[in-house]
Specification:
With about 425 residues, the protein is α/β, with parallel strands linked by helices. It has 2 domains: about 15-70 and about 380-410, Urease, subunit C, domain 1 (Roll), CATH 2.30.40.10; about 70-370, TIM Barrel (Alpha-Beta Barrel). About 25% of the residues lie in helices and about 25% in strands. The chain is built from 9 helices and 23 strands. The strands form 5 sheets. Strands 8-11-12-13-14-15-16-17 form an 8-stranded parallel sheet. Strand 11, helix 2 (about 115-135) and strand 12 (about 150-155) form a beta-alpha-beta unit. Helix 8 crosses helix 9. The protein is globular, with a radius of gyration of 21 Å.
């Protein structure tokens, strides 16, 4: 390597990537990608000898032992590195974004949680402001542009069931109200893309209809709905399920609830927290057989303790204790996770025997499709964003590119 990319400021706008096995929509092979202005502009078996450009285009080589895959998209992430989306600060979003690229996540939904109206409002205002400055590529208070992209907001609560609140704060749970959502969406400047709600509570039917009309993805979650209530909500427009099996009516052969309704309906994509704690590995394997990789989405649901040591932390004003890879309230209730998406990506292959291609569907392709942005993200294809991850067979991330920018590099592994 004859150049120092420690701060990445001098990484070029136009370059070639060569060396690893590349997983595109059509094939998995040793390919060369040409990147320009954040987009993939050509994919070739070899780099053309005559590039027909007035200046030489840099070529960056990586090991042939690695895979180049589309960047992961986390639709459910609360925090990392001691910071949480609900902190309502620009620094928190910057630190979370910087942490996520180290696990191969190139884009995500900043996820709120059940709290006071004022705290949710502040978090939404903050996300909208953060996105505005990032879109203009401006530095605010010396913040860097080196992290994962925020695609919008996942509003998890407060419109949930008190009977299935999980680690959400019961003090602030409320029935769905269209006017409250309108206020939230105005404050977020239209950035709320996904809403987790309980469809069995009063006012839910009208609320689901409104969200669908507004183009917002409606997710069933933190719900005590019975099977028929869950099916009715899917018929009304629910197309997503928040952390399948967790914080929902139990899976029982005589009283099927939310999980059975979701498993049996291809109109719904379901989140899985594949840490081996939230869902037993055997159940993960069975779920993949039932839903297939086309209908599952890997998420982390990670909280602020991710990337940090075991100990005591805060989640929505409640004490959380992290030990042996699990985050729990004092009562023992799971309180999000400390999972990284690259670990979930490896786990789902280990637990189920699924292929690398299927794991990519669950971590990259399906989240993009769920948000309606598969024309831009979620796969490696000409004219799509160059959101790319270099990963080895063990799931270790070696490099991450967000819209063509090298934002994470492990050790000194790039050659020019």
């Amino acid at each position: 390597m004859n150049k120092n990319f420690k701060d990445f400021k001098d990484f070029p706008d136009h370059y070639w990537l060569r060396g690893p096995v590349v997983l595109t929509e059509e094939t998995m092979d040793y390919l060369c990608l040409e990147i320009k202005s954040g987009k993939i502009i050509s994919i070739n078996k070899i780099i053309p000898q005559s590039q027909n450009h007035p200046v030489f285009i840099p070529i960056y080589d990586f090991s042939s032992d690695y895979y180049l895959i589309p960047g992961f998209i986390d639709l459910h992430i609360h925090g990392a590195m001691g910071f949480d989306v609900m902190d309502g600060s620009l620094e928190a979003l910057e630190k979370i974004s910087e942490a996520l690229v180290k696990e191969g996540t190139t884009a995500y939904l900043a996820t709120t949680m059940t709290d006071s109206e004022s705290k949710i409002s502040q978090a939404l205002i903050n996300i909208a402001e953060f996105k505005k400055f990032k879109n203009k590529n401006l530095n605010l208070k010396n913040l860097k542009s080196s992290g994962a992209e925020i695609l919008g907001v996942h509003l998890e609560g407060p419109f949930i069931s008190p009977n299935r609140m999980g680690a959400q704060n019961p003090e602030f749970i409320r029935a769905p109200e269209i006017n409250i959502f309108k206020k939230f969406q105005d404050l977020a400047e239209g950035q709320i893309k996904l809403v987790t709600m309980a469809p069995e509570v009063p006012g839910a039917s009208e609320f689901i209809k409104y969200l669908c009309e507004m183009g917002v993805v409606v997710s069933i979650g933190h719900s005590d709905a019975n099977f028929l209530e869950a099916k009715k909500s899917i018929d009304s427009g629910v197309t997503h399920c928040t952390h399948l099996y967790n914080a929902m009516s139990s899976f029982h052969h005589r009283t099927p609830g939310v999980a059975v309704a979701v498993l049996g309906d291809d109109r719904v994509r379901a989140e899985l927290i594949a840490d081996g704690i939230h869902v037993d590995p055997n159940v993960l394997a069975l779920t993949l057989k039932i839903k297939t990789a086309e209908q599952l989405v890997l998420v982390t649901d990670a909280m602020r303790a991710k990337c940090l040591s075991e100990g005591e932390y805060d989640l929505g004003g409640q004490k959380v204790f992290v030990k042996s890879g699990a985050a729990r309230l004092a009562s023992g209730v799971l309180a999000g996770s400390v999972l990284t998406l690259n670990k979930a990506f490896s786990n789902i292959q280990d637990y189920t025997g699924c292929s690398l291609k299927d794991a990519v569907k669950m971590a990259s392709e399906n989240p993009a499709k769920q948000l309606g942005i598969f024309d831009k993200k979620g796969s490696i294809k000409i004219n799509k964003d160059a959101d790319l991850v270099l990963i080895d067979k063990a799931g270790q991330i070696h490099a991450t590119f967000c819209q063509g920018n090298l934002v994470y590099l492990r050790d000194r592994e790039i050659e020019r």
